[in-house]
Specification:
heterodimer, A: about 220 residues, mainly alpha, 7 helices, about 0% strand, B: about 300 residues, 12 helices, about 80% helix, globular
């Protein structure tokens, strides 16, 4: 079959994106359990998040090996691997987020729990339009303009997360917690929004790759 | 004589490599070294398998009288020097133009019979070819864009296919270059009948290959990056338009230069993105190079031959 390796790479990336999405969803559930004071479930889900991230890593190594065994022309190979690497950073950020909650156990005042959950949900959900954009581009089943639109949506999601971050930062620092506690919560928030920042980077990289293939 | 032929071959490799792989290297599809090795392989193959057709034409085409060894040697050296100079200044010039100029200068110095009708026809093609190929590339790029817009799956796999097609077309042009230009390099020597034509073609092919690897990057950079920035589809269309344009000219029996064809094609692709995307400075440098190379080759061949006659 002509270009068999190339098609295999696309199949592996699709699988990789699916595993990364599952990793993010599990991380989201883990954080939700933690915020709801269900530490036992949160621990289990955090462990599962780590496992899924490791599974995603193994697929990524497979993609790298396949690419550098001659799949795709060198110019495209680099773009493809950078895209996979940038998606990996999103999954890593989600795993780090889970680790932060379970290792450092930030104490959340009840009034800050809903905005923290909202920020977590929004930040981790930026992966959904990213996944749609990647699949749309790789599978080639939808017009390229749609893939670009999905990539733009990631940026819009990230802006919403920024807004939530700004509001929550203000809420943290005007609350009557200890300064050290405020800093810890702010650090927790930084770790949460890191996911959407990395998703935006990946979407930017994808948008450039899409532009290169546009006529 | 053999050294002079090899020198011309080296020049062809150094300057005309850009015609084969300039666009593919320019858009980043292949690193230069790897592309030059491909050119080397296909140029040697082309020279050995089909080089004999052109070899017969070159020595006897423009000047109708028999040329002496000294005259042929001077024509080769004078044309070679100006192609080297053009290569040094990164100008994609036509080696055939330089050789035609050199042979013409010698013909004038010898007061030999010159086929002016043929000369004018060749000179006309130097002007018409790049313009027509430019229009062709412009139209082809538009058509390809429309066609690909209708195909939904313009994904990375499609880009990979187009990239491979660009590389394959580059190999084909390299093969044609070997077939066409190995004869250009050693054709005048073959007419002397000292060395077997196959050996000469092998030498011509190898000289082109060495030229491509050792000094081909300068002009390749001009064609691939200097005129206008190219992407993968642009590189592919430029290659196809130049090959198609040359084929069209061949059907009408008009000799054309690959250099002028590829420059015209790259400009055509650049025009799709707007005239501002084309470097006017590079275009003017190329045009001046195209005029000066054959003219100076003719002038120097004429002057040196007359000087040598005066001295000896």
């Amino acid at each position: 079959m002509i270009f068999k390796k190339e098609k295999e790479v696309i199949g592996m990336i699709i699988k990789y994106v699916d595993v990364a999405e599952e990793c993010l969803l599990t991380a989201e559930n883990a954080i939700q359990s933690y915020i709801n004071d269900n530490i036992k479930d949160a621990k289990v889900l955090a462990r599962k998040t780590r496992e899924l991230e490791s599974e995603a890593d193994l697929i990524r190594y497979g993609i790298r090996d396949k690419l550098y065994s001659g799949a795709y022309l060198p110019l495209l190979r680099e773009d493809i691997y950078k895209l996979v690497e940038s998606i990996d950073k999103v999954a890593n950020a989600a795993e780090a987020c889970c680790d932060f909650f379970l290792n450092q156990r930030p104490v959340m005042p009840d009034d800050l729990k809903p905005p923290f959950w909202e920020a977590t949900q929004k930040s981790l959900d930026t992966f959904i339009p990213l996944k749609n954009a990647v699949l749309c581009f790789l599978k080639g089943e939808c017009p390229i303009e749609v893939a670009r639109q999905h990539a733009k949506e990631v940026g819009l999601h990230e802006s919403e997360v920024d807004k939530l971050e700004w509001d929550l930062t203000k809420a943290i620092f005007i609350s009557d917690q200890d300064y050290s506690h405020k800093l810890h919560l702010k650090h927790c928030l930084d770790v949460i929004v890191e996911v959407s920042d990395r998703a935006e980077d990946a979407a930017d990289h994808l948008a450039l790759t899409i532009l290169k293939s546009s006529f | 004589m053999l050294a002079a032929g090899s020198y011309v071959g080296w020049n062809i490799g150094a300057n005309d490599t850009a015609n084969c792989i300039g666009t593919t290297v320019g858009c980043g599809l292949l690193p230069f070294r790897r592309a030059a090795i491909l050119v080397a392989i296909f140029a040697i193959l082309g020279g050995l398998l089909q080089g004999h057709h052109v070899m017969d034409t070159v020595g006897k085409g423009i000047v109708k009288d028999e040329l002496s060894i000294l005259a042929v040697f001077l024509a080769l050296i004078c044309s070679g020097i100006f192609v080297t100079l053009a290569t040094f200044f990164r100008i994609p010039t036509s080696t055939s133009q330089a050789i035609v100029g050199g042979v013409m200068g010698i013909g004038l110095a010898l007061d030999a019979r010159i086929d002016y009708a043929k000369l004018i026809r060749i000179a006309e093609s130097w002007v018409i070819c790049p313009i027509l190929v430019m229009v062709l590339a412009f139209v082809l790029y538009h058509l390809l864009t429309r066609l690909l817009h209708r195909i939904v799956s313009r994904n990375i796999l499609v880009q990979n296919y187009i990239g491979w097609l660009a590389i394959l077309s580059g190999c084909y042009v390299a093969y044609s270059m070997g077939a066409n230009n190995a004869g250009n390099a050693v054709g005048p020597i073959a007419n002397l009948g000292i060395i077997h034509p196959t050996v000469l073609l092998a030498i011509g092919g190898v000289a082109i290959a060495v030229g491509a690897i050792t000094y081909g990057k300068r002009v390749a950079d001009t064609v691939g990056k200097g005129i206008t920035p190219l992407d993968i589809p642009g590189a592919f269309v430029a290659q196809i338009a130049s090959a198609f344009g040359m084929h069209l000219f061949s059907i009408f029996g008009i000799p054309v230069s690959t250099s002028s064809a590829i420059v015209g094609a790259v400009v055509g692709v650049g025009l799709v993105k707007g005239a501002r995307s084309i470097s006017q400075k590079t275009i003017w440098t190329i045009l001046i190079g195209w005029v000066l190379t054959p003219f100076l080759a003719a002038l120097s061949a004429y002057t040196i031959y007359n000087l040598l006659n005066l001295v000896f």
